[in-house]
Amino acid sequence: MTRPGNRPPSASEQKLAASLAGAVDLSGLKKRAEAKRDPVAARTPGGDTGPVTLVEVDEATFEQEVLVRSTQVPVVVELMSRRAPTVLTTLLSSLAEEGGGQWVHAVVDVDANPGIAQAFQARAVPTVVAVAAGRPLADFEGEQPEDALRQWIAAVLQATEGKLSGVPGSEATGQPDDPADPERDAAEDALADGELATAEERFAALVDSRPRDHSLLEALRYVQAARRAAEDADAGEGTVAAALRAADRALVGGEYESAFAVLVDAIRVSAGDDRAVLRSRLVDLLESLPTDDPRALAARRNLANALY
């Protein structure tokens, strides 16, 4: 992860969905969120109009205010303690307001929300983590001078430029938002509400109607793994059942390499129908990533070695 004073992210580091998947398991916080939530108080420049620049986040609102919001614009999460306030909070809020909605400052009191600090593996406060597309991009610990903060934020914005769905500043400038996508919205709403069977059905229909949109296939494979993990559909004894369960849990946590590895290892010691079942699941999970993703390429090589 990048830090103030270090080099800007390289091209490979900027591939959020590929290079950062599973770096920190934030998905577990979804389980703590209520299915329906009250809106979180958010600050906008000049009052009630304009883009949101500041949100206060707890474990119940983390999914919506950080994970979901970060699919539109970067969310800079500040893990702080109200027992020991620092000037960093004021400085970040000021810079976010100055940015006019290009990124959002999310404040988390770790004393009241230790689960969030644990999910980010924070070792000290304050700790600041930039989240984009639901995944950590860059972080630093401790207070920083304003110039270093500006450079760090600029690097975050550069790394995420053109990769997120939001149109920063559109509320203030009158620019139109992206076209509505009610079918995808319905699928994502079902997932957010924990209705996994409904979400799977809706994402499957979207995959059939939009076969070239890989993000839909990735979402479908995630939902399928989450549903199996929740229902323990592969309950049973033996290497095959254990490998299938472990792979699903790893995929839900964003740990693609672990999911692939556990299946490949099981394939090495299996034969016949057991090997066919494991291979089929591995091929399905490999579809979660683009074919040129380094982790997918490595897993395919390992599969070939295991089979032959």
Automatic annotation (TrEMBL):
Residue span, Thioredoxin domain: 55-154
Domain of life: Bacteria
GO biological process terms on file: response to stress
A Pfam family of this chain: Thioredoxin
GO CC entries: cytoplasm
InterPro entries: Thioredoxin-like_sf, Thioredoxin_domain, TPR-like_helical_dom_sf
Name of this protein: Co-chaperone YbbN
Summary of the function given for this chain in its UniProt record: Participates in various redox reactions through the reversible oxidation of its active center dithiol to a disulfide and catalyzes dithiol-disulfide exchange reactions.
Record-linked PANTHER family: GEO12009P1
The keyword Kinase appears for this protein: no
Keyword RNA-binding: no
Alphabetical UniProt keywords: Redox-active center
Signal peptide start and end residues: none
UniProt GO MF annotations: protein-disulfide reductase activity
Ranges for region Disordered: 32-51, 164-187
Family per similarity comment: Belongs to the thioredoxin family.
